Each structure stands twice: as C-alpha cells, then as structure tokens.
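Much of our argument rests on the idea that a fold can be written as discrete symbols. Part of our work consisted of pairing the sequence of a single chain with a tokenised description of its backbone. We regard such an encoding as a compact summary of how the chain folds. The amino acid sequence and the backbone structure tokens for this protein are reproduced below.
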Amino acid sequence: MDALLESCDAADLGPTFLDLGVSTVEEVSVCEVADLVADLGIDEAKARTIVDKARDAHLFEKRKDAVTRTWKAVEESLSVEATKLFYKRLFEQHPAVVPMFGKADMDSQAEKLFKTVGVAVDYLKDVEGLISILEDLGARHANEWKVEREHYDAVGECLIWTLKTGLGDAWTDEVADAWTWVYGVIGKTMADAGDKAHFERRKAVVTKTWKAVEDSLSVEATKLFYKRLFEQYPSVIPLFSHADMDSQAEKLFKTVGLAVSYLDDIEGLIPVLEDLGARHAKEWSCEWEHYAAVGECLLWTLETGLGEAWTDEVKDAWTWVYGVIATTMADAGEKVLEEKKECQA
C-alpha cells in the first residue's frame, strides 16, 4: 500500500485511507474514482492514477499467484516431461523450426527449458531483474540461432497448449489469462532484444559490404544495376526516357550510400525515405511493383559485385535493409497516389 501511494506521489494520503478503512492495494483497486475525489479531497486525475495503478498492481499479484501455483503443480506432476511434451507439439505444429535444433540432445534441451521457465516464474517477484535476463536471452537467441519474432509466437502457442494439457481441470480462465500474460512479457521482451541484435548485426554487415562495393566498383555498381533493370523489366524504361543515365547512376549510388550511413539514425532515415517515396510517386507514378523490381536487381548487382563475399548472412542483411527502404518509400508513395485519385474523381 505504501509503495502504491509513493508511486502516485500521494504518500501523505496513507492515514486518510486508513481512516476510511482502506488498507490494502486490493481494497483500493475496487474503489470508484468519484468516491476518492469526494472522500479524500483530491482532483480526479490523481484519484484515477491511484485507482488505475492499484488495479494494475492487484491484477499483477493475481496473475503472479496463479502462475506460481500452477507451475508448482506442473513441477510436481510432470516435471521435465512437460517440456518434452512441449517440444513434441512444437515440432509437429511448426516443423520449420526443427533445423534450428540441429543435432541437439532434446532431453538436455527439455531440461534446460524446464529450468528456464522455473527461473522466470521465480523472478516474478523481481520483474526488473527478470527483464534484464530475458533481454540477454533474446539477444543470444538472435545471434546464435537466428531466432525471429514469429518463433516466439509459435513457442507461446505450444507452451500454452502444453500447460493446458498438463494441468487438465486446473486450467481455468484465470490461469489461462495469467500464463498468456506472463508469456506475453517473456516473448515480447526477448523478441524486442532479438530485433535489436538482428539490427546491429545486419547494420554491420551492410556497412562493411557497401564499403567493399564503394572501393571496388563505385558508381559502376549502379550502372550495372540499371543495365540489369532494363533487361529484366523493360516496362520501366519509359520512366527514364529523358534521364541522363550516367547522372542517374551517380544519384542512385549516393542515395544507397546515404541510406547505409543513416543506419546509425533510423529515425532520421525514415522521413528522408518517405519524402523520396512521395516524390517518386508524384513525379514518376512509382508503385510497389517498381520497388520489387528494383529490389531484385539491387540484390543481383550486389551478389555479382561482391562475388564470394556474398554469403547467406550478407544476403539476409541486404534483403532486410532494402525491405525497410522499399516498404517506407512505397507506403509514402501510395498515400500520394491515393490523393491523386481522389482529386481526379
């Protein structure tokens, strides 16, 4: 109760709450905002803050208790067999993940997962400590096993199924809500940390390989790109009917270089790409299919220019960075084209 009031900058209200017979977070959580305004003489904003935080804190305690209680039941009834059942379900429902485990000893893997879930449950009494552990795990899973956000969705579905199966009649709506919440925290925290790790790795790869392109091919790379584009997609040629292609290649070379340099400032890159996308739509009526064609030819150009240095990791990094560029520009362009149509209607 004291911690709740301190978090709301309302520690001085403690005695008044006691006078009202309200002494626990749970009791505050069922109070009405209007009643607190009248009884405590505080403004509505502060009253709402107190009630909302009390409800959140009470809900957290209920979920924590449900998760702790049911995990103890799983430990006592199924033990590590629960995680063996989990992996069986995961491999049946999501066979694409099987290669990620390679030659792993799945009995040992099940034991590790069982202990990891147990640690996460124990750490619910220290959420800040849990978050840092999960972030480290998420980064490691991304770097060592290339785990992506969608994998956490698959794991969540199979974990919930395993718990439901293992707990039987003890799997109530309250328990389902608690485990869905706790895995939501685990999955999102690890996925967010993984996204960050993927970004840093891909950024380093793109920066390194673009430097190699600059050093070896320079603007010849973009001349090669346009040659490939016009051969594979002749329908785009009229878009360049009045262009000086040497100048155009120079512009593209600088634009890609700018995008690469801006990977250290993604928030700054996005508005630059949005402006470019809007301009391409307004002046040249560029649509999504044009960005797809450009992407295919850009990757081909990089593969051709880099030779043996074009690895699966490099392909992944450049596919990702061009995906960011193309999606941002195409979305901005689509808005411009829709506005055009509305004006013409």
About this structure: The chain is about 80% helix and 0% strand. The mean pLDDT is 92.
